[in-house]
Amino acid sequence: xxxxxxxxxxxxxxxxxxxxxxxxxxxxxxxxxxxxxxxxxxxxxxxxxxxxxxxxxxxxxxxxxxxxxxxxxxxxxxxxxxxxxxxxxxxxxxxxxxxxxxxxxxxxxxxxxxxxxxxxxxxxxxxxxxxxxxxxxxxxxxxxxxxxxxxxxxxxxxxxxxxxxxxxxxxxxxxxxxxxxxxxxx
Length: 186
Prior knowledge:
The protein is an alpha/beta fold. It has one domain (5-185): Rossmann fold (3-Layer(aba) Sandwich), CATH 3.40.50. It is 33% helix and 21% strand. α4 runs parallel beside α5 (156-167). It is globular and about 45 Å long.
């Protein structure tokens, strides 16, 4: 594996407010897996970028005025790790993420975080369109329940798996945490 950058998307306290985001989410171990991957990157001194969503909706737990805007302590950035702040779904829109990656000559990204169907997917798609090789870690991401266009209910696991399926092959390679760590070891 060539040196890659780890992109941790929106792992913020406010995303624990389940009722605001759909009532339930899948993969309760996502943050623990994010932490495992983060530690591997730290041990190797590879580039790490934390992404934080600053919602423009004043009712959102992720609004900058709310305590939920904080990055979760389990993956809290260290002093030298940049924090990219955004207010849309993509970590590349109106940020300097691409410039920072290009300065480091990074061509491969590992993307983890919340949520699979929103900011993880949007960032992965845009990264692929910008020419990066993208890996999304399936058990280091999570999704929320959704309501369909006719009011039908979709559970978080279905949303998660469907989103990963739409990324697989065209926009990203989909790995689980153990497979990624084995890949990094080689």
